[in-house]
Amino acid sequence: MSPIGANEIGVVIQPIPAAAPGEAVVPAAVFKKVFDAVLAALIAADREIHPKTASSEFVIGRLSAAPCEFSFVEKAQASGAGAPSIALFRRCAGRVYRSDYRILLEHRRLMRAFQRIVAAVEAPYAAVVRYHDTELPLDEFFRRQVDRVGLENESGPPGERWFQGAVIGAFDGRLEAIDYRAAAWSGRLTLAGGEVEIACVFDKSRGENAYNPFGNKDVAVAGRAIYTGDSQLPERLEVMTIEELPRSTAAIDIRGALSPDAVGGWDDEFDHLHKQ
User: Where do the domains of the chain lie, and which CATH numbers do they carry?
Assistant: First the structure.
């Protein structure tokens, strides 16, 4: 795919891996719903920041069936029209994705437009928004984030019990197999104990070879952790760095716990482990 321009926004629609065989081609009805919803959101963003006399015009930049992709190029109708509408779309989408739900409450038109987008991207399909330098998945996680905007609008700010937002964090655990088939590369990091999992997304620009060595391995992962306020742990981790954790190969002798004479008696009330 050719690069996206600085004043352009692209969307790629793909079946999710669970799609039934034969559904690799995106139906025209699905394409139209997503196309119309994204265009409506751009128009809403334009109305938020530009007067009618300086509104932008959006023209189709690309259109393809395999992959199913389209893009809009923003053309300012007047010189000095200010910030582009695509920049506002990007800022709001990114901040909602990272749990800043309040941003859409400041732009009501965009809030309704984003709700329309997530309603248009229904299973078994997912979409990715492409900018000139990054991507944003419009997947089930993004849908839940937009839904939380509506909940906050109805009931006020969520309780302060759990943190809400995005921070750089590090986690150790076992990374399950990485899925390269979907619109966004993803995986599951199972934390120590094997009961809690964190969804991970990976930077596609690094290529599969950067991640292949770490599938089904014990790893240390660092990246942008997104906390939704619903749990003490993040719901999603945008992986920045990953490295395999070494496993100890030394045998451990626990006979010290069974033989007081070997450890100098029990007077110190401590058990002892001796590595060989």
Answer: 8-155 (no CATH), 164-244 (2.40.50.140)
